[in-house]
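Deliverable D2.4 — example input (structure tokens):
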């Protein structure tokens, strides 16, 4: 959780938004891969917190205890999966930057939205797999 807060401060201090082109960019002395790590950390934490809040809201009923177990297991007991998801999203950012022939430190809003959706999908797949493993 502390890494996410550090990423938030990094994002606020080093990123700028260019309204005409709708592009976020990091200031030049910043490493683009550090920028990707900060952004994927923030979007992945957000993609983890939304299902967590929904499961806590519905807690005593249905499958919410199992969903909570899966979410907490992903975050606290399986950091390797968390890091692999982050690397996957970082790799997608780098690949898109190479395909578009743009500098690596430029990100559009649609890329940030897609990274959130990929993170939400990866968290959901992990929780669903954990749930199916438990119910077998």
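Example output (designed residues):
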């Amino acid at each position: 959780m502390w890494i996410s807060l550090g990423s938030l401060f990094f994002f606020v201090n080093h990123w700028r938004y260019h309204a005409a082109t709708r592009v976020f960019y990091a200031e030049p002395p910043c490493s683009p891969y550090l920028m990707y790590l900060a952004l994927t950390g923030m979007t992945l934490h957000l993609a983890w917190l939304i299902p967590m809040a929904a499961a806590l809201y519905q807690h005593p009923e249905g499958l919410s205890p199992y969903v909570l177990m899966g979410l907490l297991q992903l975050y606290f007991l399986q950091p390797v999966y968390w890091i692999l998801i982050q690397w996957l999203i970082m790799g997608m950012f780098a690949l898109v930057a190479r395909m578009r022939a743009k500098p690596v430190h430029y990100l559009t809003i649609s890329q940030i939205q897609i990274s959130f959706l990929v993170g939400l999908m990866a968290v959901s797949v992990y929780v669903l797999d954990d749930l199916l493993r438990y119910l077998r």
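The CA atoms of residues 50 and 129 lie 18 Å apart.
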